[in-house]
Amino acid sequence: MQTPLHVAVTADVNAATVVSILLAHHANVDAVDGEGNTSLHVAVQHGNESVVQLLVDAGADLGIENQDNLTPLALSEKLGLNGVQAILRQPRRPSDSELVAAVEAGDVATLRVLLDCRGNLNATDETGQTLLHLAIRGNAQDVFAMLLSANDIDKSKINVQGDSPLVMAIKLGHRSFAKMIFAAVHEPTLYVPMSELLNEADKPLGCGGVGTVRKASWRGRSVAIKTGSRSADAEDSLEKEIRALKTCPSPYLLQLFAVTPSPNVRLVLEYMDGGDLRQYLDKKRDNMAVPIEYSALEVAWVIANALADLHHAGLLHRDLKSSNVLLSSTNYIKVADLGLTRADASTMTKGVGTFFWMAPEVQLCGAKYGASADIYSFGVILTELDTFQAPYAELNETVTPWYVMAQVAAGKLRPNLRDYCPKWLRKLAEACMAHDPNERPSAHDIVEQLQCQLQCNDMDPLSTRSLLAPTINCTNCGTPQPFLSCRCSVCAIPAESVARKFEDLRARIAVAKDRGVAIDTTVPCFACSAPNDVAADTCSECNYVANDEDRLRIFVAIVQYAQGSKKPAVLRRLPSLMTTDMVCPVCKVSHLVTDAKCSTCSTPAPPAAAKLEALLWRIAVPQPAIAIDVTYPCSVCETPAQLKDVVCFVCEEELASDEVKVEDLCRRIESIAKLPQVA
After folding, report:
1. Is residue 643 within 8 Å of 665, Cβ to Cβ?
2. Quick one: 190-270 is in which CATH superfamily?
3. Around Cβ 191, how many Cβ atoms within 10 Å?
4. Residue 498: C-alpha distances to residues 85, 152, 508, 572 (Å)
5. Strand-pair partners of 531
6. What's this model's pTM, rounded to 2 decimal places?
């Protein structure tokens, strides 16, 4: 019998396109028809060289013989197809799994041989990690350098978590990898006419003393356009920012793509869709859902590296604050707003920056300061990461900024940390906010300290920072915790409410879907198997009500399944309510209600109490000529009790467990299902 792939290779038009689509959807390339021909045999018969190449590259078995005892090569020789013979005689193209194995083993020699044999540079493993991602995770620098030097490799391809290799390298704390790949993908700043900037939004992304930032489109990508106000100071600020970003290209700083010419200078900047760090911390402070969780450590890591790169280039930021740290679902975390940067020197202008983030020495008349002033501002941001509060939020509203500045300058005031602040964060923040600039660590020192902290972290940083991470940060200590945990494993504070967790996860999934991550949030009703959105608490058909804990458990399982599966799940409803089967809400395959886990995807089954509730709901649906006993006898006094009862209402003895009741009820349903159906 011919498969769709057999039929596709015979098409006169667009055969290669259709074959490519079928292969992408895991069509069996070696399936045979009634005459023993594989799709490769059929492609040879039609002399379609492009399709033959596609099938060979897909790993078609060249040794299969048809009923005439002919392999594809023998068939091409018989037909005199020289071009097809050349394709079939070329060295076998390595499989993606061979390339993955070589990268994971750090085997440079084998990888070079595989690539010389036309190995797929953009191969992925079973979990969607590209070869570059795997080299970064394995800390295989030689392998990474070889891959990066290849012309045809996609250096920006995202993995299933939505992270590019550059973002992954930053998240894992691999500075050398981040530097290498940034150098490979970084685009030099262009000078472009105003006519290239399209669709500028009326509502600005932000406004400041020197200008306005709006979202726009440029050369097919979303960008942020920064426009200066009509003042000499604004023009000077934009020019400083341009010089700084061109002098110090860094993966930790907001990227400058292009500049429009004078007199209306505009900066075409990287667009960050997550707003700024202060906005994010405000949401955390107010117990609002956020689409992506950022730990204090990872934010500190990016800012410290940005400062290290700036200071190494001889530049100071001079306006570092939480609102100048931008967040993105694709570009991660970036330090922005370099309009006040200038070369490091002993004498600077007084009053730059924002008051509450200023170092004490900056607030003095005739201030002399250097890179250590940026370090103080970094320390203030660390206090925000710990408390979620803006600096000095605990002070009385009547206290003026001038009073705060005077107290800070005198060494009598600085931002607070919580009593239960993580030790590493407290130690670093206090060192950075030392009153004496000479006692503060350098940016390089901070990077080394944070590198050690990353290595000491017993959790894989990548698994706690992606959109699909099954964790949520503790609101008290910031430690990532499994979504289903009842309390923090570090500080023992009770976890967020189920409703809050659910909303947080929904916000993440919405962003993931916008980025093209395929997540099916349709789930079967536990009672009738009708399709419903996971967010629905009541079935649209049978009105079965699922509790919040069960819905959250299912939602988390769906997200975890989406990370490891490349095949879409297809929901098939149960043929009848009189069944002891249930449909797995994750993989959509049915299995027995009594199973402890799904036999297909191994997702743990619902608790016995939920199973019992669903079975009783099924039985309650009016069905002609069907009556099932829903009582259970007390083992002591034998008084019939309702299946949902926990203790006997007569003798007050504890009744059988829900697990036992589920098994008993399933036997009753099965016995009824075997009876002849009444017309």
Report:
1. yes
2. Phosphorylase Kinase; domain 1 (3.30.200.20)
3. 8
4. 63, 47, 15, 29
5. 524
6. 0.68
Cα(503)–Cα(505) distance, integer angstroms: 5
Contacts of 60 by beta carbon, 8 Å cutoff, 6+ apart? 29, 30, 38, 39, 40, 72
> And the tokens for 213?
């930032």
Rounded mean pLDDT, 491-497? 82
What's the CATH number for 4-89?
1.25.40.20
What is the C-alpha separation between 190 and 184, in angstroms, rounded? 17
Q: Is 592 helix (H, G, I), strand (E, B) or coil?
A: strand
Q: What is the mean pLDDT of the chain?
A: 85
546-559 confidence digits (pLDDT tens): 778 888 888 888 77
pLDDT for residue 439:
97
CA atoms within 13 A on the CB side of 660: 10
pLDDT 10s digits, 140-165: 999 999 999 998 899 999 887 788 99
Residue ranges of the domains in the chain? 4-89, 96-185, 190-270, 275-455, 465-515, 631-673
Closest CA to 148 of 133, 127, 159: 133
Q: Which residues pair with 267 in a beta bridge?
A: 226, 259
Q: What is the pLDDT of residue 629?
A: 84
Fold classification of 275-455 is Transferase(Phosphotransferase); domain 1 (1.10.510)
211-219, Cβ contacts within 8 angstroms, sequence gap of 24 or more = 211/237, 211/238, 213/269, 215/271, 216/268, 218/192, 218/257, 218/258, 218/268
Q: What is the DSSP letter of 257?
A: E
Q: Which helix (H) or strand (E) holds 448?
A: helix 443-456
